[in-house]
Amino acid sequence: MIPWPQRQTLPASAEALRDEVRDFLAAHPPAPAADIRARSWMGFDADFSRALGQRGWVGLSLPREYGGAGGSAFERFVVLEELLAAGAPVSAHWIADRQSAPLLLRYGSESLRQELLPRICAGEVYFCIGMSEPGAGSDLASVSTRATRNDQGWLLNGSKLWTTNADRCHYMIALVRTSGQHGDRQQGLSQMLVDLSLPGITVRPIRDLAGDAHFNEVFFDNVQLTEEALIGAEGDGWQQVTAELAFERSGPERIMSSIALLECWCAWLRRSGGGSADRRALGELASRLAVLRSMSLAITAQLEQGESPVIPAALVKDLGTGFEQDIPDTLADVIGRHDDAFADEELMRTLAYTAMVCPIYSLRGGTREILRGLIARGMGLR
Amino acid sequence: MSDSLFLDSIKPLFADISERFSGESQFDAAGAWSELVATGFLRLMLPEQDEGAGLDVTEGLPVLMAAGYCALPLPYAETALLYAAQPTLAADDQALAVGLSTTAGRAKALRQDLPYLQALLLDTAGGAERAAVSDSDSGNWTLQGIPSPCETTINLQLLGTAAECLQLAGALQRVLELTVDYANTRQQFGRPIGKYQALQQQISVMTGHCHSAVMAAQLAASGMQRSDTGLSLDHHRVAAACGMIKAACQPVVSTAHAVHGAIGVTEEYELHHYTRRLLAGRVAGGSESRWFEQVGQACLDSDASVFDFTLASLS
């Protein structure tokens, strides 16, 4: 069985950050149009990331010796949820802050930490994650991109797919095969730090159905990496990736992806008046938001205590992404009851955008069906 | 005494009373109530000056949920919360519940399956009243004498619904456990049915509903603050939490029965004690739509964003 969630309240020190973040956002306002803010953590703005880094809110929970603010997971929670609630463009530093920096702190060499972590915390250096490949999606252990040892370090060949922001990032942390064959599965995998400016790398953007190009395909043709590129131990890539994915599940970003639409609709309801079905929908969505946020905070408390609640985090991610996807579904139905809603172009653009992109909410970072298998095993079904 | 010690010391009695209720043709409800009174647990959330244990609702929550987990056929959680809301109600150790409007000398309790009750608390135009009752005929209780005014100002409908929902959260926990156990035990096609992905996916979704409900129960409890004079309800937080627990009932019942197959709908197997409670409890005091609509109205009436309303009023 998965342990039942235990409610936590935010410590006062974390709650106190809320007004500071709001002041910062007043000085660095996100886009006025809701359909732009609906890009949520896919909106890329390097100037914003640097300003946030100067404020100490990138790598907030990293140790001070590496440029972090030495803050708590609760403080980071408040900063993230405030940025997401406002629709701030956090994409540039997002992966570095959320996954790469904790990974480097845990498994990186001291010289790598000294070199990279302060620049991440400054909001200047951006990372992407090389996991999926053309033949390896949910079945991640079947990656075939290979790094082969040579006298200068490692020679990298292969390709990665669906790599968010590869065209705008400085580094990729890639899961690659360093020994064995395809059939060896989780054995023989390692994580490599790839400087995306190296010769032999081609990045091809892939346009999505909303017209944006955040995905990429990345090709490696005899890319020479140094010995230092290996992160952690050779052959431990699978265990490291599993630990890394626990950082990416269950945070506020797995609840808030459709918040711009929800707020835009609520503002419209206040202007135009709604009926019983609208009030019921609004009440249900707000109630779900409250419970999910409390569940996310409960996981944050476990992380803060040094635990690794991989399966409870998977459960919250499944619930959270379901909520994010139900928002455009529910709202399409209730908005469609009002003829005058069609005249509100911002609302309709935001609805159309969110409804079209929301399928990815339960794909990115591990599909819903894989997570549910994980949850079932956590419940003792084997 | 810590929360879990409270729970450990009362749960066996809850389970025992429940077993007697389902196993004996002549269940002595009044006798079982006397046993509960003797434990002192009805005064769990009364101040120490009223001979109570002084717990707040959050601390008492595991015990309140355990009543639902055990399908306790007595209004323990209802009574304990009403005593906490209005300590003078505890004076004579009576079994209480919140009731619905009266017609021709009769009234219903929000929870309709109760075999035993001594008085109902009723909301009337002139304020709250306490009505002694006897003899239930299919959930219709006969009023005894003239109802007396009750000095509480608490929203009885919401308190009664919350008492029901905290028990439902416990019942949801029990149904999840039974379902996982059964999926691991029952074999078909040569292996436990819990090995099949189709069932794993359904049970994962069910787990999500149950975990949400347990968190919602904690939010509801945190919205019921105790003071020297009784309880005050944080209306929207409690209403939102009740809506979430009620919304979990039907999908959990559906999956539990689907996984159990035919054995799940027999009188002999225990599942129906809990699923019956969940289906009735979802409606008792108002379904999720009633409470969600109130929350939605409150959000519209505020000037805040949905996110800020959620932080300020629901969390």
UniProtKB/TrEMBL annotation, chain A:
<dbReference type="InterPro" id="IPR013786">
    <property type="entry name" value="AcylCoA_DH/ox_N"/>
</dbReference>
<feature type="domain" description="Acyl-CoA oxidase/dehydrogenase middle">
    <location>
        <begin position="128"/>
        <end position="223"/>
    </location>
</feature>
<dbReference type="InterPro" id="IPR009075">
    <property type="entry name" value="AcylCo_DH/oxidase_C"/>
</dbReference>
<dbReference type="Pfam" id="PF00441">
    <property type="entry name" value="Acyl-CoA_dh_1"/>
</dbReference>
<feature type="domain" description="Acyl-CoA dehydrogenase/oxidase C-terminal">
    <location>
        <begin position="235"/>
        <end position="379"/>
    </location>
</feature>
<dbReference type="InterPro" id="IPR036250">
    <property type="entry name" value="AcylCo_DH-like_C"/>
</dbReference>
<dbReference type="GO" id="GO:0005886">
    <property type="term" value="C:plasma membrane"/>
</dbReference>
<comment type="similarity">
    <text>Belongs to the acyl-CoA dehydrogenase family.</text>
</comment>
<dbReference type="InterPro" id="IPR006089">
    <property type="entry name" value="Acyl-CoA_DH_CS"/>
</dbReference>
<dbReference type="InterPro" id="IPR037069">
    <property type="entry name" value="AcylCoA_DH/ox_N_sf"/>
</dbReference>
<dbReference type="InterPro" id="IPR009100">
    <property type="entry name" value="AcylCoA_DH/oxidase_NM_dom_sf"/>
</dbReference>
<dbReference type="InterPro" id="IPR006091">
    <property type="entry name" value="Acyl-CoA_Oxase/DH_mid-dom"/>
</dbReference>
<keyword id="KW-0560">Oxidoreductase</keyword>
<dbReference type="InterPro" id="IPR052161">
    <property type="entry name" value="Mycobact_Acyl-CoA_DH"/>
</dbReference>
<dbReference type="GO" id="GO:0050660">
    <property type="term" value="F:flavin adenine dinucleotide binding"/>
</dbReference>
<dbReference type="InterPro" id="IPR046373">
    <property type="entry name" value="Acyl-CoA_Oxase/DH_mid-dom_sf"/>
</dbReference>
<keyword id="KW-0274">FAD</keyword>
<feature type="domain" description="Acyl-CoA dehydrogenase/oxidase N-terminal">
    <location>
        <begin position="14"/>
        <end position="124"/>
    </location>
</feature>
<protein>
    <submittedName>
        <fullName>Acyl-CoA dehydrogenase</fullName>
    </submittedName>
</protein>
<dbReference type="GO" id="GO:0003995">
    <property type="term" value="F:acyl-CoA dehydrogenase activity"/>
</dbReference>
<dbReference type="Pfam" id="PF02771">
    <property type="entry name" value="Acyl-CoA_dh_N"/>
</dbReference>
<keyword id="KW-0285">Flavoprotein</keyword>
TrEMBL record, chain B:
<dbReference type="InterPro" id="IPR009075">
    <property type="entry name" value="AcylCo_DH/oxidase_C"/>
</dbReference>
<dbReference type="InterPro" id="IPR037069">
    <property type="entry name" value="AcylCoA_DH/ox_N_sf"/>
</dbReference>
<comment type="similarity">
    <text>Belongs to the acyl-CoA dehydrogenase family.</text>
</comment>
<protein>
    <submittedName>
        <fullName>Acyl-CoA dehydrogenase</fullName>
    </submittedName>
</protein>
<dbReference type="InterPro" id="IPR009100">
    <property type="entry name" value="AcylCoA_DH/oxidase_NM_dom_sf"/>
</dbReference>
<dbReference type="InterPro" id="IPR036250">
    <property type="entry name" value="AcylCo_DH-like_C"/>
</dbReference>
<keyword id="KW-0285">Flavoprotein</keyword>
<keyword id="KW-0274">FAD</keyword>
<dbReference type="Pfam" id="PF00441">
    <property type="entry name" value="Acyl-CoA_dh_1"/>
</dbReference>
<keyword id="KW-0560">Oxidoreductase</keyword>
<dbReference type="GO" id="GO:0003995">
    <property type="term" value="F:acyl-CoA dehydrogenase activity"/>
</dbReference>
<feature type="domain" description="Acyl-CoA dehydrogenase/oxidase C-terminal">
    <location>
        <begin position="165"/>
        <end position="296"/>
    </location>
</feature>
<dbReference type="GO" id="GO:0050660">
    <property type="term" value="F:flavin adenine dinucleotide binding"/>
</dbReference>
